[in-house]
Amino acid sequence: MIPLQMSVDPNLYVALSAVMFFIGVLGVVLRRNPLITLMSIELMWNAANLSFMAYSRAWLNNAGHIFTFLVITVAAAEAAIGLAIVVILFRPHQQSNVDDVVLLKG
Amino acid sequence: MESSVNSWPLIVWLLPIAGAVAIWVFGPQLRRLAGPLATAVLGAAFVGTLALWPAVAAQPGGVHSTMYTWAPGITVGLLVDRLAFIWMTIITGVGFLIHLYSIGYMEGDRVEARFFSYLNFFIFAMLTLVMADNFVFLLVGWGLVGLASFWLIGFWTERAAAVEAARKAFVMNVVGDIGIMLAIFALFATFGSLSYADVFAKAAQGPGAIMTLIALGLLAGACAKSAQVPLHTWLPDAMEGPTPVSALIHAATMVTAGVYLVARCWPIFQHAPGAMETVGVVGAVTALAGAVLGMVQWDIKRVLAYSTMSQIGYMIMGVGVGAYSAGVLHFYTHAFFKACLFLASGIIIHGLAGEQDMRKMGGLAARMPVAFWSMLAATCAIIGVPLFSGWVSKDAVVYQTLAHGHPVLWAIGVLAAAVTAYYMSRMMWITFAGSFRGDEHAHGHGHVPAWVMGLPVALLGAGSVVIGWLNWPHEGFAEFLAPVFGGTDVAPAAAWGGEFLSTQIPLFLALLVGAGIAYLQYGTTAALAGAPRRLEHEAVRQPAFVVHLYYWNELLDALFVTPARALAALCARVVDPKLIDAVLVRDVAMDVGVFGLLVRRWQSGLVRAYALTLLCGAAAIIVYFAVVR
Q1: CATH code of the region A12-99
Q2: How close does chain A come to B586, measured CA to CA in Å?
Q3: ipTM of the prediction
């Protein structure tokens, strides 16, 4: 194993990442405001980024950095589409609730 | 076999397909130019074929060009040896004359361009068949000529009989195709290769039983394509097609593919004596059976159709006894005189506004001199008047049967020659002698043949006289083909009395007897004077067994067509509604529907529910990998 080169225990980073991720999950599952849903998704992205960076530092491997950039790019694109959807949801009734959107009900 | 990069065969091979595609695509624009263009393409192909001669003559193995390797042992290549060269000269040369003739014959047809496109396509397919250097390619050409034949027999789609005949020809030919296909499978399993060179080099090592089966498979293909007994019934029906088609496909070229196949695969047949014997017998039976059927026909094209069947029987008999070059020689002369006969009959039919019944003809010698003189020359050739081309080749075939030790086949050959002399003379006298028995009014609507129709007929008529002289000095043809057959077709010993006593004299006597009986029946002054009534009377008295073509169609119907129809009816009544529709279609659809009803509740449309499902799925995967494994 490559020796650790970090002043802070990487397990702490991973734990923080897990906490962030589950906060995001709860936000998506429990909240009905689409803006909050989007922000929760961003939180999950960043939780993933954090663990990428932590492991990257811990193992001295730059692949994690590269993946982080990739994630940020995709997240930006996703945010653009997500915000567009939010705007469309908001327009008809001047309010928005993800549970009102059930056109795809089987 | 040396592999020289000779692109000349490729050009000859691809010219007709280029013409076919061009005429197909630009047909509406070309209009009357379609015919001349197709003819020019054939002329170029003929010149190209002749230009190949020095190369072919220089290399005993033939000009061989490999294009690419498709799979181990299966290459796509062209082989032009002396045997293929002979066929190519007929395909492109006689094909050129028939194209020229078609310009006149098809004038004013609604879809003239399509006709010439099909004709060019046929030439391409036939060239594929004879220029192939392996069995797969051969089968491709074999199938494509069948397709072209199907298109052209049924060319006049508004005639129900033509469509029916086209379908019949196609189906019966597929029977033969399957025989060849099975033979090819067996060849590949035995020799591991399908190129002619490999297979023929190893033919001697093949186990006898397998070789016999392979040869019989090939024979099935030859029987179907060359209208040999028992698969002969499609050929007379195929006369529903336009007359140039009958001349090109159903007389000169395609129907002789069976002869080509046996001659090409001689090393296989050489090692399958039983199959070889069968080939000879099939040819002899067909030669006689076809000739007898020709005696009772009234439709001029049907007389010629049965005559074709009979003459191909001679060729098959020739190659079947091992006298390959004699069989090929008869193909060569036959291509000239039979094409001439068909094209001349086309002039008559054209001149009488579509009339094909000989009882409504008569006295046409003066009205249609080109047709008469050409047809006379070709008739003299086919019945074997000395010095005419058919005399040379038929003589060779019949003599070789005796020299190869088949006296029974020799006897059948002589007998069939007498019958041939009878029905051909009968046709000549009924058609050209006496006085006109048809409707003068209808005759007024007929066409006078243009030079494009007269010239090919006259040239082919001249060819019917002289082309047999190629065999001189004596057996010149066998010497020409010696590099192909390696001298195997030379008879072990001369037959009793030599060719003159054993064959020429009997054949000449047969000719005199046949033509003499026909003369007494149709040619005397008394016969000609009472012709109209006599012919009607005779039509009633003909033996029913022969008039109904030995009830062969009925037999095939009873054995195959009726059971197939019954099976189809059964499928339509039971299998289709009870199995396919009910179990395989309706029940499956219903099961899927019920399943859908059950799981549709899941599809709530709520995004958050989907997210939860996703989460549970991800959790399950993690648990599986972290805990279970």
Answers
A1: 1.10.287.3510
A2: 23
A3: 0.84
